[in-house]
Amino acid sequence: MERLRKYGFVAGFLVVPITLYSVFVISPYIQAFQLSLTSWNGYSSIVRYVGLDNFGRLFDDEVFWQALRNHGIMLLVLPIVTIVIALFLSFLLNLGGGPRGAGMRGVWGSKFYRVVFFFPQVLAVAVVGVLFQAVYRPDADGVLNGVLAVFGAAPVGWLTEPSLALWSIIAVMVWQGVGFYVVLFSAGMAAIPKDYFEAAALDGAGRVRLFFSITLPLLRDTVQVGWIYLGIAAFDGFALVQVLAGDKGEPDGATTILPVTIYKTAFAYNKVGYASAMGVALFFLTVTFAVLTLRTTRRERVEL
Amino acid sequence: MARNRPPRPSVLAGLSHIALAVWALLIILPLLWTFLASFKSNTEIFGDPLQLPGALRLDSWGRAWDKAHVGRYMLNTVIVVFFGTAGTMLFGSMAAYVLARYQFIGNKLIYYYFVAGLAFPVFLALGPLFFVVKQLGLLDSHVGLILVYIAYSLPFTVFFLAAFFRTLPETVAEAAMIDGASHTRTFFQIMVPMARPGLISITIFNVLGQWNQYLLPLVLLAGDPNKWVLTQGIAKISTLAGYEADWPGLFAALSMTILPVMVVYIIFQRQIQSGLSSGALK
């Protein structure tokens, strides 16, 4: 009786979550793998299997390679720039005041800075995109160009210049992301025992030395987590690119990225089969990145 | 000794302040500019971008709220996020609790089934998801979007809360059972209150995620502009602003979406920061 009641309870608690999750998450994923082998257009009742044709086409698709090149640049630049800036700022916030008493202190006002830095993180990416449309306006009325004009510089086409567009978008991602990693790294720094710093400071180590010899090695795991998150973010960027560059038509494919291409291929060109093949490619790229990062950065942990 | 010496002003500390202040300004200035631009006239917006508004014009706020439907979008978003988060927390905590604390056949399998959802990019499911929702007759409906939000929030919620429920002590729940409480009662009256810190973190995580969602509404609510949520509405207003030459209206709409988030953030910033970063580190 009690056993039966227990199983009834377990089943009762699981039935709704499992159903919702299976219908809306797992079944679309499975269908995506299946559809990637078809030439389905989204409305015909006949689904024709074409084997691996879609993947073959992907290899000859200039847009796909352009997207991959852009993801490659983002994969290199986004994590490095974001992590370096975030490490620098969180070091100043937490330890920049130098050693005092039994520990290190941050600079004056560090609480205020932390609140401000994190704020873009809670803004919707779509809203950030619209905001930066005004900042990046190509004519003299843009916010950034207006500031440049004070120094006598000519207006710059931040999003219309093919050689600049991707960098402008990466800059927004950095702008939005840094605050989150400042908080993440600050938490990591707070976990480092204070007497490590005290001992090193008594031995005459300066702030720079404290950072590279104590903080950074002990922050390794946190930085690795940040790296993986930023790497995955480098394969996304949908809302930002869609809002910032979407309607203006990505200059010469300079900001073409896979998610936007998948969205367009499926819903504007009605090539659901082909879009699914791109989705499958994106899935394997993301997983490969995560696995490679975990493997190459694995090392002996520093025990506290 | 070092600890008795008053902190001495140093060049390095001064440089630190400059670096921190520069980054703070980079964040504050675009937001402040947006807010000020909502009071400007079109000619002022297209004049010197650094100039202040000549008068405090509030009409653009009215236009954005009514004519550009920001009020409607805001209400839609509140409805969808409220039910989406409530459903996510209810079903997510139920599944996580059972998976964390009950032994039964298939327990591990179901847990990994949920967690597997974390590994897939949502773009992979985009096309088929549209057709699943369409077949259920839930396209362009808030119910459809809410169910999809719940489903996509479950992997992380279950993953996070299962870990949390495992850390709670056995004895309290056992005592409640011996006193004759049912399994369901034990969960809602004993375990949920005990798990409050974990539940709050993950609630904040889900509210923010669903409030800021752009892709799923874009795909699932495309057909009915009356049902749109804030993020897709704002993106639409920004394309319209150029044609209708109502730039102050656009910046009023932007300010209206940014301000409530800012207020909520300032009130809950401690919980939000720790909620999001502990979420990321799990």
What does this structure look like?
The complex is a heterodimer of chains A (304) and B (282). In chain A, 71% of the residues lie in helices and 1% in strands. Chain A is mainly alpha-helical. A two-stranded antiparallel sheet of chain A has the order 1-2. In chain A, helix 10 packs antiparallel against helix 13. Chain A is globular, with a radius of gyration of 24 Å. The model of chain A has no long low-confidence stretch (mean pLDDT 87). By secondary structure, chain B is an all-alpha fold. Chain B has 13 helices and no strands. In chain B, helix 4 runs parallel beside helix 7 and helix 4 runs antiparallel to helix 12. The longest helix of chain B is centred in the C-terminal third of the chain and has 35 residues. Chain B is globular. At the A-B interface, helix 1, helix 3, strand 1, helix 4 and helix 5 of A face helix 1, helix 4, helix 5, helix 6 and helix 7 of B.
Task: Briefly say what this structure is.
Chain A contains 13 helices and two strands.
* Fraction of residues in helix of chain A: over 70%
* Main sheet makeup of chain A: 2 strands, antiparallel
Proportion of strand residues of chain A: under 5%
Count of helical stretches of chain A: 13
Distance between the termini of chain B: 42 Å
Biggest β-sheet of chain B, characterized? none
Query: Runs of chain A with pLDDT <50, length 5+?
Result: none
The strand count of chain A comes to 2
List the SSEs and their pairings.
The complex is a heterodimer of chains A (304) and B (282).
Chain A: H1 2-35, H2 53-60, H3 62-95, E1 99-100, E2 103-104, H4 110-122, H5 125-135, H6 143-150, H7 162-190, H8 194-202, H9 207-218, H10 220-234, H11 238-246, H12 258-267, H13 272-296
Antiparallel strand pairs in A: 1-2
Helix pairs in contact in A: 1-13, 3-7, 3-10, 4-7, 5-11, 7-11, 10-13, 12-13
Chain B: H1 11-37, H2 42-45, H3 59-66, H4 70-101, H5 107-116, H6 122-135, H7 142-166, H8 170-178, H9 183-194, H10 196-211, H11 215-220, H12 230-244, H13 247-281
Helix pairs in contact in B: 1-13, 3-13, 4-7, 4-10, 4-12, 5-7, 7-10, 8-9, 10-13, 12-13
